[in-house]
Amino acid sequence: xxxxxxxxxxxxxxxxxxxxxxxxxxxxxxxxxxxxxxxxxxxxxxxxxxxxxxxxxxxxxxxxxxxxxxxxxxxxxxxxxxxxxxxxxxxxxxxxxxxxxxxxxxxxxxxxxxxxxxxxxxxxxxxxxxxxxxxxxxxxxxxxxxxxxxxxxxxxxxxxxxxxxxxxxxxxxxxxxxxxxxxxxxxxxxxxxxxxxxxxxxxxxxxxxxxxxxxxxxxxxxxxxxxxxxxxxxxxxxxxxxxxxxxxxxxxxxxxxxxxxxxxxxxxxxxxxxxxxxxxxxxxxxxxxxxxxxxxxxxxxxxxxxxxxxxxxxxxxxxxxxxxxxxxxxxxxxxxxxxxxxxxxxxxxxxx
Length: 352
Known about the structure:
single chain, alpha/beta, TIM Barrel, two-stranded antiparallel ribbon, 14 helices, lipoate synthase activity, iron, metal ion binding, 4 iron, 4 sulfur cluster binding, iron-sulfur
């Protein structure tokens, strides 16, 4: 009896000191699955992926470990933001590059300003920004305060992004446009990139921001089409995001467009390449690809940590597809310092 219990522990039930056994009729099919499945050599051979055991969080690989944020520029930037009651996506999204960008190790310190408050009306599974159906109304002083903060930093390039505001009639497009106008008024030579929501696919609202005086219009596709339903809020669809990007390029061909893909949700290599092709067909000029990092236990788990060599392959593919700029690496984010430097030069060359 003990021997049989050890052989079939999952099919035994202990009742009042006796063992009742339930035998599986699928033993043959299980054996066939094991025989036809991958062997140990195949698992060892594929070094590109660090996969997640079921029910466990993956340990951070060495290529994703960064220094703790510090330095004079970091402290100055944080103090300015607090005094003007401004939020940044760098903090809200727990970006791993915050020390590099805010610390200003190379050149001027940079940051991505987040406007329209710090509370989003959507709940994407990758994002750590607070959510609510009806966030507080936008701060009417935010456009001027944002312009003042940016002017005090003496920057050449700034990224402005926002939460989704489905509670507002125009999705916050008017407020977003006013921020850009104020920033440009205080510093006409400053290059402005706007990382926008999809404005529920309303092209009038999209164009309102696109015509505000910005230099780069960015909207992130975030993930491959098959995983959009799982990763993003149901109101954000793959097709809608592609249409927003295509509309901006069709209606405003002189504006640089930009998008970003996160990997590590379980997508395939083929799906990533297909998404890159779709973005290029939508007229997107610049692309960033980076590793998804789970911000808290309540968010979508990382299914795999992609090896840096795979990111290098995607960067090569991006260049072949015709993107003006492709940044692909484990720590690359949509608002990436090195990318901003390249795009800054690209825009200056266009103007000259």
